[in-house]
Amino acid sequence: MRTSSTSAEEVSALLARSDSSGRRRRSSPVQSASPRPAGGGPRRQSSFRDDVGHAASETYLVTRLTFTLLQYLGLGYRWMSKLLALTIYAILLMPGFLQVGYYYFFSNQVRRSIVYGEQPRNRLDLYVPKDIRKPCPVVAFVTGGAWIIGNFPQGTIGDMVSDASQGISYVCNNIASYGGDPNRIYLMGQSAGAHISACALMDQALKESSGQSISWSVTQIKSYFGLSGGYNIHSLVDHFHERGLSRSIFLSQTFANVLQQAGAQAKLLLYEGKTHTDIFLQDPLRGGRDPLVEDVLSVIHVDDELTQEKIAVAPAPRRLVFEWQLQLARRISPF
């Protein structure tokens, strides 16, 4: 997620981060952000010991699924080279990952592994700003993972969309108990998470229009932000088969054009010179002012001039990784 603690402190916003794993057999965590509600809250928060045990079981599960996935993909040169690049990429950025991990496990502003569904991996995290004296705006964040990390072969994309929708429902129906403002809920997805969260919105709209029973409404979402998303999946199948994930395939404006043609208010912002992973990994680890974060906050706080002034004078997030590591990681990124 982007500048998790710092941006939350700066803008006094609840950030709900959601992982986009599949849900059949074992489903993914949808993750979010906020304080324990008065009176105990709708769901029990796990202890640090529970988190460690959960992380160990997840590690075993992911390792087992990795071998299963490799059976599907084959052990060809292209995939092995991508795996090697990913390993080096992760090592280069590890100093930043460790700092973020420390914050995640030990900050009192993080509420981990809130259960939002019946499947074992239906969990979300709540990231809470320091000042919660009044209801805070909420961002439900659905992470990426190439539709396979934490998902395939556990579930189909339809299962992932169902998981994301269930997580959004939990946020819409319970976030007020944690100090969030139910009238200011925003949905954000990144990479595959952008596609999955967009599908969740579309699916929910279809259910509403056909009179089906629903647990949340698209009207509860004030805005949707899609970051580096791949939306036209059919046009990407051959590319996935031949080369794996490329930097260029996620720069499609077709989705925005279709939304505009349908009468929706959609705005496309392209950040020149940015790769697929820059906006959600390298840039946050670099610290300093972030144009993407500022653009998002300008939408969330469009009617709140006082908060906009506070954001303008707030200290910039600190650097977590040296620049040479970021540049090298950027060059070898397999995404």
From TrEMBL:
Its EC number is 3.1.1.n2. It is found in: Golgi apparatus membrane. Its main location: Golgi. InterPro entries: AB_hydrolase_fold, BD-FAE-like_dom, GDXG_lipolytic_enzyme. Residues 1-49 are annotated as: Disordered. The keyword Hydrolase applies. One of its GO terms (molecular function) is hydrolase activity. It is a multi-pass membrane protein. Gene3D superfamilies: alpha/beta hydrolase. It catalyses: [protein]-C-terminal S-[(2E,6E)-farnesyl]-L-cysteine methyl ester + H2O = [protein]-C-terminal S-[(2E,6E)-farnesyl]-L-cysteine + methanol + H(+). Coiled coil: none annotated. It comes from the Eukaryota. Residues 159-225 form the BD-FAE-like domain. Belongs to the AB hydrolase superfamily. Isoprenylcysteine methylesterase family. This is protein-S-isoprenylcysteine alpha-carbonyl methylesterase.
